[in-house]
Design a protein that fits this description.
Layout (H helix, E strand, L loop, with lengths): L1 H20 L5 H15 L19 E8 L2 E8 H9 L6 E2 L4 E4 L2 E2 L9 E4 L12 E6 L5 E9 L3 E2 L1 E9 L5 E5 L3 E3 L3 E8 L5 E5 L5 E3 L4 E4 L3 E9 L8 E10 L5 E6 L4 E5 L7 E6 L2 E6 L6 E4 L8 E10 L2 E2 L6 E4 L6 E5 L6 E5 L7 E7 L8 E5 L6 E4 L7 E12 L2 E4 L6 E4 L5 H6 L1 E4 L5 E2 L12 E4 H6 L3 E2 L6
Parallel strand pairs: 3-9, 5-10, 12-18, 36-38
Antiparallel strand pairs: 1-2, 4-6, 7-8, 8-10, 11-13, 13-16, 14-17, 15-16, 17-18, 19-20, 20-23, 21-22, 21-24, 24-25, 24-26, 27-28, 28-31, 29-30, 29-32, 32-33, 32-34, 35-37
Length: 483
């Protein structure tokens, strides 16, 4: 009897293991097991007694009779175990929500980015895309943080996500300058562009040498070298970038505007040079003066006073130790001035001018006016150096005239003048009424004017008549010859 009990105990343990392993086994399979037991035990039925267990809340148990060697044993199976057997997920389908998703960081390109994805299980095995999972992306165009979503397919279910960084892209600045070397006071323009979308700005490394506008226009201020930085600012999707343009500012040369003979010498005038701190004055290739102010633009060379002598001048601008190119050479001949010796009006509407001779001169120019400042004037010329007097007629009687004279020297068709003499004045005599009425004048056959002898309007006809008769007949005085 004891032997049979041991056999029964072993059989019950074997059956329990079968129930645990075969979760999908039906009650019919259990019945088949009972039949097998019947054959082994040869009809003996034993009743196995087990210690009662507390029933879990909501669980029910069912006792199944098992026969072994004439003993009947009841096997108890809970309803919860039956339910688990019915609802258990297919173990061949795996949830990948806990798997590791690896995605590489990338850089902004302007297009949607789809960096490569790697999915590995707990043991490091790599899954196959489009076979084990599909991939989708979000926030994957602009710089920042993008998201990748891996969804299981085939033997896998569930989904996993991972983030990746989209770095800002580099932008390249291109800049070209109209001229890398400019004169102070002159301008050049920088043209710039960028491969990104950053706002372009310009900065000068030394605004005392050169300034630059927001549009890239560079203005030279003084000699030196300056760096203009062209910068494209950072933006949502691009890093900042810059490029440097080097510009050399040179000292421009000046231009001699005039050489004037004065009583003290030759006065040189030139144009101001931006950025200059002064000027060097050269006469006949020899420096005669250093001007220490950049705003001074004239100088009287008192060493150039030889009557009739030729003088050549050039001027250099300078800044510190930097010297500009020379101005163009300008030539003059010094002519000593002459003085008025007398000024008289010995006849009506006439005056006689006399002056001192200049043996080196080619001639003389006389200037006369009713204005003491010569705001309006007339001139008369004498083309011989030996002639030192001139009678000027057709003046207005009773008026005061101011007169001055200067000598000139003609070289290769160019006249070089001396300084003006001091002015003199004289009151011009007018005609008396008796002489005026009885004097002889001339009329023409067709005209309405009376003329002085020699007037150009008398070339076709000339009829003498007294002034009084001409006036009585309605003739008026000619404005050209002023009879």
């Amino acid at each position: 009897m004891k032997h049979n009990w041991n056999r029964l105990t072993a059989l019950i343990l074997a059956l329990s293991m079968c129930v645990s392993l075969l979760s999908a086994t039906t009650w019919a399979a259990d019945v088949e097991t009972e039949a097998a037991v019947d054959e082994v035990v040869a009809g003996e039925t034993l009743e196995a007694e087990e210690e009662p267990e507390e029933e879990s809340a909501g669980e029910t148990e069912e006792t199944v009779p098992v026969a072994a060697e004439g003993l009947e044993e009841e096997v108890t199976v809970s309803a919860a175990e039956e339910e688990n057997e019915d609802t258990q997920v297919d173990p061949s389908v795996v949830d990948l929500s806990t798997y590791t998703v690896t995605v590489a960081d990338t850089t902004y390109t302007g297009s949607a980015l789809t960096p490569a994805v790697t999915v590995t299980d707990e043991e490091g095995n790599i899954l196959t895309g489009d076979t084990d999972y599909t991939v989708s992306y979000s926030d994957n165009t602009d710089a920042g943080t993008g998201t990748v979503i891996v969804t299981g397919i085939g033997s896998y279910t569930g989904a996993a996500t991972a983030e990746f960084t989209i770095a800002k892209a580099s932008q390249t600045v291109t800049a070209s300058v109209g001229s890398s070397s400019i004169y102070a006071g002159k301008t050049t323009t920088i043209t710039a562009s960028t491969t990104g979308d950053g706002t372009i700005t310009y900065t000068s490394s030394d605004t005392s040498v050169a300034t630059v506008t927001s549009g890239g226009k560079v203005t030279g201020k003084k000699p030196g070298t300056v760096k203009i930085t062209v910068k494209a600012a950072s933006s949502d999707n691009y890093k900042s970038a810059s490029k440097t343009v080097k510009i050399t500012v040179k000292l421009n040369k000046t231009t001699i505007s005039s050489l004037t003979n004065t009583s003290k010498g030759v006065t040189v005038k030139w144009s101001k040079v931006t950025g200059a701190s002064g000027y060097y004055i050269y006469r006949n290739n020899k420096q005669v003066k250093k001007i220490t102010s950049g705003s001074t633009v004239s100088y009287t060379d008192t060493g150039a006073k030889t009557n009739g002598a030729k003088y050549q001048y050039k001027v250099y601008a300078y800044y510190g130790s930097t010297k500009s190119a020379a101005s163009s050479v300008k030539t003059t001949y010094y002519v000593s001035g002459v003085s008025l010796s007398s000024l008289k009006s010995s006849a009506a509407k006439k005056m006689t001018v006399k002056w001192k001779k200049n043996a080196k001169a080619s001639g003389y120019q006389i200037q006369y006016s009713t204005s003491s400042s010569f705001s309006s004037y007339k001139t008369a010329s004498v083309s011989k150096a030996s002639t030192v007097s001139k009678t000027i007629s057709s003046l207005t009687g009773g008026k005061t005239y101011y007169v001055r004279v200067r000598a000139y020297k003609t070289v290769s068709g160019t006249k070089y003048y001396s300084a003006w003499s001091s002015k003199k004045s004289v009151k011009v005599k007018g005609s008396s009424s008796s002489s005026s009425s009885s004097s002889t004048v001339y009329i023409t056959e067709t005209g309405t004017k009376y003329h002085r002898d020699g007037c150009r309007y008398l070339s076709s006809s000339k009829i003498s008549i007294s002034r009084s008769k001409a006036i009585a007949q309605g003739y008026t005085a000619c404005s050209v010859c002023d009879p």
